[in-house]
Design brief:
This protein is of the alpha/beta class and 379 residues long. It is built from twelve helices and 16 strands. The longest helix is centred in the N-terminal third of the chain and has 18 residues. Bound molecules: L-homoserine (HSE).
């Protein structure tokens, strides 16, 4: 194994954690330089810095580029340039991989370099590695994941009495939330991650627009309190579901019966359930935060170091993407109002809530005085 000279694009939470871990425990890796917006900003780590990406992308001493900036268009350009300059690339950027992953992986294959992105989904949890290797030998049926720590944190804080605004501000302070947290709470961050999981798990290429996405902005403390009285709980879940010869991709606030492993996630931890013909596999661990994410980046660097040349898989196939068949849990908004008898599409009634399919329009919900969320369990 030869040592690697790394050029780092981005020195935020993940970039700084990466440099610290390398300096403390991996003396065989060398971070030569980091791209930053402002070299004068105070940082605890000591490393050469530049504001000019070309000083990293075209430095012949640098043979591996790590991109941890976030965003879409500039990272796309930088990753393309790094691969063309014969450098391997590791990125933690789910956005650039969800939008331009096919193009960038093709560029890596063409240049004979590697592009790895384990840290882009579920932070420190080695789920992409598991899907690429161990689970690639068995047909999968579905992948469900709680993939956004900010949403877990907000929902659990609201369950404990905090307001949405307070909980979001705290998630930002703790460094879980994106620079623009709209992507967290609106479900787009989870959509990007579930797309990346589906592409590997089901060997397909799909556009991000094919993920039917609903975030948590419509979930209130009142909803969570009502669900709690039924011994139910809610998390934002991304799902990729294979049925016969088509796939559905969706993100939605989803309800489960207590206890459920997804409902135990209160902070940055993520969990993924992969259901295959060999049974269900569970993966859980820290999905956000500098140290966990940097762990996956370093793991990718070691993978690249032990395998010379391109290991990126061949381009996948295309499958029809369809609307998921869904069941919903319905209950009255007003706890003093009883659930109307014989709701259209009613499949089951469990005390004060009912499971229905296919779900109600907003007009029907208003007419019956109901709230409705996706039901995550088999009926
Ligand atoms: N904003 C993301 C989250 C960071 O809250 O999970 C990790 O991708």
């Amino acid at each position: 194994m030869r040592s690697r000279t790394i050029g780092l694009l981005g020195l935020g939470t993940v970039g700084q954690a990466l440099v610290s871990i390398i300096q403390e425990v991996h003396p065989d890796l060398h971070v030569a330089k980091a791209l930053v917006r402002d070299v004068n900003r105070h940082r605890t780590i000591d490393i050469p810095m530049t504001t000019r990406p070309e000083e990293i992308l075209f430095d012949p001493e640098i043979d591996l580029v790590v991109e941890v900036t976030g965003g879409r268009e500039l990272p796309r350009q930088w990753i393309t340039q790094a691969l063309a300059a014969n450098k391997d690339v590791v990125t933690a950027n789910k956005e650039v991989m969800a939008y331009y992953g096919s193009e960038l992986l093709a560029a890596a294959r063409q240049s004979g370099r590697q592009l790895r992105y384990e840290a882009a989904v579920a932070g420190g949890v080695p789920i992409l590695d598991a899907l690429t290797h161990h689970l690639s030998v068995v047909p999968l049926r579905r992948i469900d994941g709680v993939l956004n720590g900010t949403c877990n944190f907000i929902l659990s804080q609201m369950e404990h009495g905090a307001s949405y605004t307070e909980a979001l501000a705290e998630a930002q302070r703790l460094g879980y939330a994106e620079a623009d947290p709209t992507a967290d709470v609106g479900g787009d961050d989870t959509a990007r991650k579930v797309l990346l999981l589906a592409q590997l798990g089901f060997h397909l290429e799909a556009a991000i627009e094919s993920v039917d996405t609903v975030g948590i902005t419509g979930v209130t403390a009142h909803h969570l309190a009502r669900l709690e009285t039924f011994h139910l709980g809610l998390r934002l879940v991304g799902s990729a579901i294979w049925d016969k010869d088509s796939l559905s991709l969706r993100v939605a606030p989803t309800v489960y019966r207590v206890p459920h492993p997804f409902l135990d996630l209160e902070g940055p931890d993520n969990a993924i359930r992969v259901v295959s013909q060999a049974g269900a596999f569970w993966f859980q661990g820290p999905g956000a935060g500098g140290y966990a994410t940097a762990t996956s980046v370093i793991s990718d660097i070691f993978r690249i170091r032990t395998h010379n040349g391109s290991l990126n898989p061949p381009p996948p196939g295309h499958y029809p993407i369809r609307q998921a068949t869904s069941r919903y849990v319905c209950f009255t908004h007003d706890p003093d109002q009883s659930l109307p008898l014989g709701l259209p599409g009613e499949l089951q009634r469990l005390g004060s809530y009912a499971i229905v399919a296919p779900g109600f329009s907003q007009e029907a919900l208003d007419e019956y005085g109901l709230c409705q969320f996706l039901w995550g369990e088999e009926t």
